């Protein structure tokens, strides 16, 4: 397992530590979590203000010490080295340090699965840093309190030599600045024990790496606190840290007056004038701080989440996790119609972590029937844009967070990436008795035809970078905890679920090489496909869908019901993005009709997103009529709507749900040869097979390969009238619909 990339700043105390013994790779594992703030976006109203403890005189003293250290370093040049002391013991059994000279390369002594190495650093009179590396049994009464360091390894690699027990150890260059921080404030951290992954783990020992990765949760949960080292001080990083504290305090003050009324809270925050030119440089500083590599390294997720107390350092400035959470909520409240005051990339990187913190720190205050933990697949999908040097760590780095990880995955750095990814899906199917996880192969697949990946089509390639969304797929619906989603804690309830195969267990057999045999029900073939920004419309041509000789003979009732079916498809028959509740279809139908009728004559009056869709799909044939004609004939039977044709602020409006489905989830209309309606993924093609596989919550699309016996997995699909087990009824009526599909 390899860790993080890039970032040279670390809190001084951390740097010292890291520097002293850096030659080990990092890993992680689990324990119970402390309860922090119990709020989410709609419940995040702390009325207490944690004072930021950075006294002016301490900062002044730190600067003086810094100058002193720099002068000493200047005299020594790059000859300065870090000496780790040999671990001797005093009469009380605790290690004592004795300075030794370097006499060769350092070699790690083996440790058992229950043990960890800890580092203690001391500040010598001549300005050098000395320390000891000692082994303790985690959780044992003799194990001292320790601070864990969360940081980014950097691109420079192990280019800095330190001395450990009289031996040379090549360590990470990124820890050097942190050491300087430690030396400036060493009196504050006297006798402190540290856990720094690259020093405290022998990364060259694959067996030790695998064992330590499984213990990451325990290591961070048992830590007295975790220091997040964002990096060295920059020209505006102090401004960023100070402004975040200021922003968090203002958000708390506004919450006292607004209570839980988010609209009023937003109004009070915007009344502060934080988006004016006066604060422009502050927002720029915050943007740059949030774009530092730490925020998007996948390993740092559990380091943040699992620790009982977390403090962020950038240079000598510090920020508590509580202040950061409050500031981020304040930042979101300041967005309004002007958009975010920082870039979307900077906001997402930090906000998504805030959401995960809420799930872990606040879950105890919610109904356990609605919150039983977060699945590994859900976390992987939600943080799919995070970086990992070793692609296997996209899984291993999250094991300490996932509720089902221990039963599904065991770290194995001797296995190939392809084997690790395939085994994850196989284990998921066996443990949860569900095929839902294969749907993620729709999103996570390599578009590089020259790729050497040997993954079968039903196994997600987690190396693929995907912009994260709370609900990436229908199988991420709120009602299914084996995948689930990271919705706000105030939105845990649900009243409906997709259940295309009802309670049927998967009938599968894994067949070499890379094939899976699945039993299910054949429904139909794809005939027509709607147009979208990425691909043109594919006309329907089946006998059922071609226009009748006299189109005007079509009944008004037929037009009404077909328009309702299309409307249900466009919102996936749900009223909310988290897929928790059924759509108010009568209201949505009126709104859909209004959009269609207005789009035909007054383009400027309708949101351009819908206009583009209507122009690309109005001629698509559905059971003998195109969508434009259906809208015209159904108008007399559909009541008038007064919905806004532009406003997206109501997230449960037809327009917002239309956006969720067609833009965010990238779905296009589907017409089957028999005239069934649905929504398909972008890469669907005419002739694809529509089926329901036993053990899967939603219908799927498969594509026959050149071999008549094998299929390629394409993705999930919404099929109106077949989302709640109706296919099982048709199976009983049509004996030839039951089939076994070999997917490779």
Structure description:
It is built from 22 helices and 22 strands. With 744 residues, it is of the alpha+beta class. The chain has 5 domains: 12-35 and 53-231, no CATH class; 237-311 and 319-365, no CATH class; 376-466, no CATH class; 499-534 and 670-744, no CATH class; 541-665, no CATH class. Strand 16 (667-672) and strand 17 (677-681) form a beta hairpin. Helix 18 packs across helix 20.
Task: Describe, in short, the structure shown.
By secondary structure, this protein is of the alpha+beta class. The chain has 22 helices and 22 strands.
Descriptive labels:
32% helix; 22 strands; single chain; 17% strand; alpha+beta; 11-stranded mixed β-sheet; 744 residues; 22 helices; 5 domains
> How many individual β-strands?
22
Separation of the first and last Cα atoms = 29 Å
Q: Which secondary-structure class do the elements indicate?
A: alpha+beta
Q: Quick check: average pLDDT?
A: 82
Overall outline: globular
Q: Classify the beta-strand content into a percent band.
A: 15-25%
Major β-sheet annotation: 11 strands, mixed
Low-confidence stretches: 4-82, 84-100, 364-371
Number of domains: 5
The percentage helix is 25-40%
Q: Treating each run of at least 4 consecutive H or I residues as one helix, how many helices?
A: 22
Rg over C-alpha atoms, rounded to the nearest angstrom:
29 Å
């Amino acid at each position: 397992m390899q860790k993080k990339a890039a970032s040279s700043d670390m809190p001084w105390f951390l740097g010292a530590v890291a520097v002293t013994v850096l030659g080990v790779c990092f890993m992680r594992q689990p324990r119970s979590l402390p309860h922090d703030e119990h709020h989410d976006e709609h419940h995040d109203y702390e009325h207490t203000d944690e004072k930021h403890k950075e006294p002016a005189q301490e900062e002044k003293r730190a600067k003086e010490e810094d100058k002193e250290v720099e002068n000493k370093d200047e005299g020594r040049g790059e000859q300065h080295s870090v000496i780790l002391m040999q671990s001797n013991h005093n009469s009380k059994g605790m290690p004592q340090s004795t300075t030794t000279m370097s006499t060769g390369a350092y070699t790690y002594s083996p440790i058992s699965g229950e043990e960890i190495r800890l580092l203690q650093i001391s500040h010598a009179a001549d300005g050098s840093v000395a320390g000891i590396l000692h082994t303790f049994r985690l959780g044992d009464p003799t194990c001292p309190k320790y601070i864990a360091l969360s940081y980014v390894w950097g691109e420079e690699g192990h280019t800095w030599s330190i001395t450990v027990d009289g031996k040379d150890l090549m360590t990470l260059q990124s820890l050097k600045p942190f050491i300087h921080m430690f030396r400036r404030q060493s009196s504050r951290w006297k006798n402190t024990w540290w856990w720094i992954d690259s020093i405290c783990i022998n990364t060259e020992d694959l067996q030790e790496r695998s064992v330590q990765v499984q213990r990451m949760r325990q290591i961070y949960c048992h830590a007295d606190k975790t220091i997040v080292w964002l990096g060295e001080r920059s020209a505006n990083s102090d401004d960023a840290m100070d402004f975040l504290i200021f922003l968090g305090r203002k958000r708390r003050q506004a919450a006292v007056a607004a209570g839980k009324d988010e609209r009023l809270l937003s109004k009070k925050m915007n009344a502060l004038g934080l988006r004016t030119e006066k604060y422009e440089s502050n927002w720029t500083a915050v943007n740059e701080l949030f774009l530092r590599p730490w925020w998007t390294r996948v390993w740092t997720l559990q380091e943040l989440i699992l620790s009982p107390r977390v403090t962020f350092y950038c240079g000598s400035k510090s920020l508590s996790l509580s202040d950061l959470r409050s500031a981020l909520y304040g930042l979101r409240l300041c967005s309004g119609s002007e958009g975010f005051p920082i870039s979307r990339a900077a906001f997402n990187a930090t906000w998504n972590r805030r959401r995960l913190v809420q799930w872990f720190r606040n879950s105890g205050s919610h109904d356990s029937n609605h919150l039983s933990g977060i699945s590994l697949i859900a976390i992987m999908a939600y943080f799919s844009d995070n970086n990992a040097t070793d692609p296997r760590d996209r899984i291993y780095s999250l094991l300490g967070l996932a509720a089902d990880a221990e039963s599904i995955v065991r770290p194995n750095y001797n296995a190939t990436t392809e084997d690790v990814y395939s085994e994850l899906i196989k284990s998921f199917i066996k443990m949860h008795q569900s095929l839902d996880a294969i749907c993620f192969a729709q999103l996570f697949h390599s578009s590089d035809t020259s790729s050497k990946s040997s993954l079968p089509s039903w196994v997600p390639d987690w190396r693929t970078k995907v912009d994260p969304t709370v609900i990436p797929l229908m199988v991420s619906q709120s009602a299914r905890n084996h995948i689930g989603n990271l919705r706000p804690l105030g939105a845990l309830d649900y009243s409906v679920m997709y259940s295309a195969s009802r309670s049927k267990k998967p009938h599968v057999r894994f067949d070499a090489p890379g094939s899976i045999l699945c039993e299910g029900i054949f429904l139909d073939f794809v005939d027509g496909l709607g147009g979208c920004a990425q691909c043109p419309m594919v006309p329907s041509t089946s006998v059922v869908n071609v226009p009748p000789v006299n189109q005007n003979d079509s009944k008004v009732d037929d037009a009404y019901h077909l328009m309702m079916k299309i409307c249900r498809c466009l919102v996936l028959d749900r009223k909310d993005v988290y897929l928790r509740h059924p759509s108010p279809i009568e209201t949505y139908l009126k709104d859909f009709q209004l959009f269609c009728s207005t789009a035909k004559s007054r383009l400027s009056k309708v949101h351009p997103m819908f206009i583009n869709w209507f122009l690309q799909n109005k001629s698509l044939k559905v059971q003998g009529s195109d969508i434009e004609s259906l809208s015209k004939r159904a108008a007399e039977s559909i009541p008038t709507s007064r919905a806004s044709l532009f406003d997206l602020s109501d997230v449960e409006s037809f327009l917002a749900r239309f956006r969720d489905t067609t833009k965010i989830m990238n779905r296009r209309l589907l017409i089957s040869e028999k005239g069934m309606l649905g929504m398909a993924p972008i890469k669907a093609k005419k002739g694809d097979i529509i089926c329901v596989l036993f053990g899967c919550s939603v219908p799927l699309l498969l594509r026959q390969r050149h071999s008549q016996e094998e299929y390629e997995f394409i993705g999930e699909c919404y099929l109106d009238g077949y989302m709640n087990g109706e296919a099982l009824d048709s199976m009983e009526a049509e004996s030839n619909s039951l089939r076994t599909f070999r997917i490779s």
